[in-house]
Amino acid sequence: MNNEAITPFRIDIAQSALDDLDNRLAGARWPDELPGVGWEYGISLEYMRELAEYWRTGYDWRVQEAELNKMPQFTTEIDGQNVHFLHVRSPQPDALPLLLTHGWPGSIIEFLDVIGPLTNPAAHGGDPAHAFHLVIPSLPGFGFSGPTTETGWNTGRVAAAWAELMLRLGYERYGVQGGDLGAFVSAELGRIAADHVVGVHLNAATFGFIPFGKVSDEERATLTESERARLERLADFLGDDNGYFQIQATRPQTISYALVDSPTGQLAWIMEKFKAWTFPTADLPEQVIDRDRLLTNVMLYWLTGTAGSAARMYYENMHVQNWHAQPSPTPIGVAVFAQDVAIRRIGEQLNNIVHWSEFDRGGHFAAMEVPELLTADIRRSFAELK
């Protein structure tokens, strides 16, 4: 039987852990790099050395820790797994509860800039009628929800855990939102808890919204210019940008030794993806996301030693026995940002799409890159459902 207690949680990292990080960064052993290759072979050595030095001498974890501790945090045990979550209630008592789920290589840090506007729109120039009570859990195996202690924690199992979490918090009727792995979880939650989920909102949607296998010339000819561009981005990802995926989906334990032992290894593994997936990709990620915010996200992996545990979710997803292929009855809204690959006509095969927005800016980490756009789209998507 699970312990259903909900326990207040406060982040309190031991100084010895911060001193250890400082020592490891100061003594980092750097690889060589071919002259003039820049980012072509992976994350740039010049960039890495500069960022790691800033991490060691300019970044202040205690400032970030104090900011995080201003928000109400809790832990509870669900299906044998510790679950850490933020629970930020709106000053509007009749606000709709909304569950936000992050992806990889993100964390709850992704949502920090949307918490205020979503919970208290009146204080941010919005309509109080569009307020939400927010529940923001760390995925099992990630950050303060990690590590996982048994096999089987795929996104479907997470969806079942989230359904239990919301009922445990007393929410019988609620919405869900997520991107990346969070989109997997959110769409599945709309299937398994359709009696409770009033609507789903997704960004960075892939499974269920992209073709699997080759697209015929006949079908390609019917696509719009923007849809063809998304297919090209998807092909680039599958051909040159998904090495991380193959490693985490097949050998997560092997990569974990490097990521958990080396802060520069962990930093490179995450920041390479922020460079590739923010918009525009030609820019450095800190040109669209605050550098300290990026490092705080890295810290949640480093300080908890959960890089390998988080990677295991890819393995679990790729080794699940079946994927739900039945249409979902729950209304779904989708935001397609400039780096996304979702195609509506494919999504409509399995999803009850009632809202679809396309943007010419913003990338994979929309809540961090363009929080105002994501916030507005969430409000529009749920306006008819509340």
Task: Describe this entry's structure for a reader.
This protein is of the alpha/beta class. Helix content is 44%, strand content 15%. The chain contains 16 helices and 9 strands. The protein has a 9-stranded mixed beta sheet with strand order 1-2-3-5-4-6-7-8-9, sandwiched between helices. α9 crosses α10 and α10 runs antiparallel to α13. The two termini are 35 Å apart.
What labels would you give this structure?
nine-stranded mixed beta sheet, about 375 residues, globular, 16 helices, alpha/beta
The share of residues in helices is 40-55%
CA(first)-CA(last) distance: 35 Å
Structural class: alpha/beta
Mean pLDDT: 95
* Biggest pleated-sheet summary: 9 strands, mixed
Strand segment tally: 9
Instruction: Classify the beta-strand content into a percent band.
Output: 5-15%
State the helix count: 16
| Topology pattern, helix = H, strand = E | EHHHEEEHEHEHEHHHHHHHEHEHH
Give the strand order of the largest sheet, numbering strands 1, 2, ... along the chain. 1-2-3-5-4-6-7-8-9
Low-confidence stretches: none
Radius of gyration: 20 Å
From the spread of the alpha carbons, the general shape counts as globular
Quick rundown:
The chain has 386 residues and is of the alpha/beta class. It is 44% helix and 15% strand. Strand 4 (96-101), helix 4 and strand 5 (132-137) form a beta-alpha-beta unit.
